[in-house]
Amino acid sequence: MALCPECEAIIDIGDELEEGQTLDCPECGVELEVVNTNPVELDSVVDEEEEEEAL
To answer: What is the CATH architecture assignment of 2-54?
Structure first.
């Protein structure tokens, strides 16, 4: 299990997790990337277009 960094929902993840893998939070829908597998650490994926629009 891991926590969504955006909404802190508990995400049930499988054993076959790899660094760089992406998944969606079932609660808030944000796209997440696995940045570490032991312990499991997730980070939200920043779309370059969205980042440019925010500036």
So the answer is: Single Sheet (2.20)
What's the predicted TM-score (pTM) here? 0.78
Cβ(34)–Cβ(24) below 8 Å: no
- Helix-strand-coil split of the chain, %, nearest 5: 15, 35, 55
Dihedral class, residue 38 (left if φ above 0, else alpha if ψ from -120 to 50, else beta):
beta
Q: Which residue's entry shows tokens 């939200």?
A: 44
pLDDT digits (tens, 9 = 90+) for 12-36: 988 889 999 999 999 999 999 999 9
